[in-house]
Amino acid sequence: MKSITFNHQNSSAIGIGTWHIGEGNNKENTAEMEAIKYGLDHGINVIDTAEMYGEGLSEKLVGQVIKNYPRGSFQLISKFYPFHATPKLIEESLKASLKRLQTDHLDLYLLHWRGNTPLEQTVFGLEKMVSAGLIKNWGVSNFDIDDLKELSSIKDGNNCQVNEDLYNIGSREIEYSILPWQKEHHMSFIGYSPFGSDDSEFLKIQPIINQMAQQKHITVHQLLLAWVLRNHDLLSIPKSSSIEHMKSNLAAVDVTFTKDELEILDQTYPAPKHEVQLNTI
Fold first, then answer.
1. How far apart are the C-alpha atoms of 64 and 70, rounded to whole Å?
2. β strands within 67-115, DSSP E
3. Which of the four pLDDT bands, split at 50, 70 and 90, describes residue 242?
4. 47, 183, 225, 228: which is deepest, by most CB within 10 A?
5. What is the pLDDT, as a whole number, of residue 146?
6. What is the pLDDT of residues 184-216, one digit of tens each?
7. What angle is formed at CA 109 by the lines to CA 106 and CA 110, rounded to 5 degrees?
8. Which residues does residue 9 pair with via DSSP β-bridges, in sequence order?
9. What is the C-alpha separation between 212 and 261, in angstroms, rounded?
10. In a 3-state reduction of DSSP, which class is residue 106?
11. If you count DSSP H runs as helices and E runs as strands, how many of each does the chain have, helices first?
């Protein structure tokens, strides 16, 4: 498994995303648990979940899996609703998540998206949870460049270790200013939905994708994931609902592109040349 520096640690090149996981029947849940186990057993050491996912069902399923693994062998990330972003509600949400996950701490706790609570209050609450030993670090999600700059300007705002945004070949908004800013400030980046959304609103598969995947003897999904990972400078968190999906994701880590291939893809899916609004799912 190739590795990257993420959250100031040596981490796997991909993580395990868990959106919609844990919401099915027993057969589906069993397949999802086996997929997570397979990933952990084959070098993946980051799991990303949230209290929003199935209103806690994702966290419960993850908890069933990770209780059988040494806690220090993986990084565990969860996220809280923006309407739980006051110090009191952060603590309540966090303790509920820890109970569902059957663990005593998170490696990262993220504000899922920005709401009406002033960032100063949210940061104060998160710093309090760090001091209590319930989280090691904290971060944000779905933050645009202006949000990140505002966060960095408040007390302890520079302690933010991670921002998680939408990123795939059809949604490249982060490349213009967000990624460069985060690199300058030593803040790790997580890209979610490398395959786009369920309804393909944010990623239209053009013929070149199918053609190039066939030429490289890989699947379309593997090409899309490999493209996100091409610079080895961020963490992508594809969901895997079966061992077959997990194997496919793991194999995508080793896919490479020639300079000509990347130029062709850039022509079809161009990077932004100016500041554009950040898309979210």
1. 13
2. 75-80, 106-111
3. very high
4. 225
5. 97
6. 999 999 999 999 876 666 789 999 999 999 999
7. 160
8. 6
9. 8
10. strand
11. 10, 10
Burial per residue of 8-35, b for 16 or more beta-carbon CB atoms within 10 angstroms, e otherwise: eeebbbbbbbbbebbebeeeebebbbbb
Domains along the sequence of the chain with CATH: 3-268 (3.20.20.100)
87-125 tens-digit pLDDT:
999 999 999 999 999 999 999 999 999 999 999 999 999
Q: Which amino acid is at 247?
A: K
Give me 16's structure tokens: 């395990």
In a 13 Å sphere around the CA of 96, the CA atoms on its Cβ side amount to: 17
- pTM of the predicted model as reported, rounded to 2 decimal places: 0.96
- Whether residue 43 is predicted with pLDDT greater than 80 in this model: the reply is yes
Parallel, antiparallel, or unpaired for β 106-111 and 75-80?
Answer: parallel
User: What are the distances in angstroms from CA 99 to CA 91, 148, 218?
Assistant: 12, 30, 40
